[in-house]
Amino acid sequence: MKTDKQIYTLLGADPDFLRVLTDGIAVRGAYLFEALDVKGLERRTDGVLIPRAVDEDIWVMEFQAQADPLIYHRLLLEMALVGERHPQRVVRGFVLFAEATLDPCTEPWHGLMTRDPQPPLRRAYLPEVLKRLAREAPDHPLLGVFLPYLEADLERLRRQAPTVYRQLQASALPEASRRHCVAVFQSWLMARFKSLSLEEILKMLGELTPLEETRAYKELVAKGVTIGRQEGRQEGRQEGRQQGRRREARRLVLLLLQRRIGVVPAAQQRCIAALSVEQLESLGAALLDFQDRSELDAWLAEH
């Protein structure tokens, strides 16, 4: 299950999430958390933490879910190149490993991290971070967000997901932080239940009623029934089901977009209204990774 983008989303969503997942890195005020195309590298640095306060350190962050014996060397190179952009700032590096066994313990950096109280590089192991969080703050919303990531048994996950989803929606987090939590939770849930559509996932969570119970479906089927002939009734039912499915998919996509990026302008709504059911379902899966309205614009332009 791919997790990188979701981890970076959480790191950038809330200062408390940042502190927890980095095992203590704190920012006093506002900060940017962005991906940078670093000059001199043929890749993008996915997580660069830039505090607004110029006297605070910049952090180049990596989430490592696969074995890479050169991760520390690569991180040091990224730090140096980011430092060229910000020559007046201190630049440090951090790696969050999905498992402790993925840490290559490269010297001299590994030894330096254990001896120096403020080393240029820091690292943490996600299972240890979450276990500590469960002991110290068992009601923390991040534990709910990580449920699809941690729970191996799909049947237990299916039973627990609706309760956790409701708790995330009702949490006392700032609106933007709560929206990011819900989006990451839904994204990971879809990755675990690959055979289910977005509509089926949201039904599982109690977000939608079955299509056959929706007002749009009943109205459209009723129109088909009035045709009078058996063939007409059958065609009407089929047309009602198809149109009802499209309306419900469009309503669902607009609902999720509003929660993810805010109010959807009328021009974009018109574009969405013209999409087929298949395109709407594709957009419904893609929007869980949207950060702002420009990504919706790019998706609509492409499709």
TrEMBL record:
Residues 242-300 form the DUF4351 domain. Pfam families: DUF2887 (PF11103), DUF4351 (PF14261). InterPro entries: DUF2887, DUF4351. PANTHER family: SLL1542 PROTEIN, SLL1691 PROTEIN. This is DUF4351 domain-containing protein. It comes from Candidatus Thiodictyon syntrophicum. The lineage of its organism: Bacteria, Pseudomonadati, Pseudomonadota, Gammaproteobacteria, Chromatiales.
